[in-house]
Write a structure and sequence with these properties.
The chain is mostly helical and 75 residues long. The model has no long low-confidence stretch (mean pLDDT 90).
Length: 75
Amino acid sequence: MPQWGGWTSGPVESAEVFARYCPDHPERTAQTWVAARTGRTPSADPAVLAMLIDDLAPWPAAEHLSVHGEKAARP
């Protein structure tokens, strides 16, 4: 959220900010909207759950790791 200059824990606002600042990831934008909707209205649809858990969730973790590296172990 640094480019946006703010912070939100609201899923809909997060999806809006992601769509505005990450236009080079249209497939992730669509998934982010699904995540926002599912956060408000849970789904038991196996395809939705698989997309969120197996495809979308690992992506920001991998992006963070590639930019910031692995976190050092605590002493």
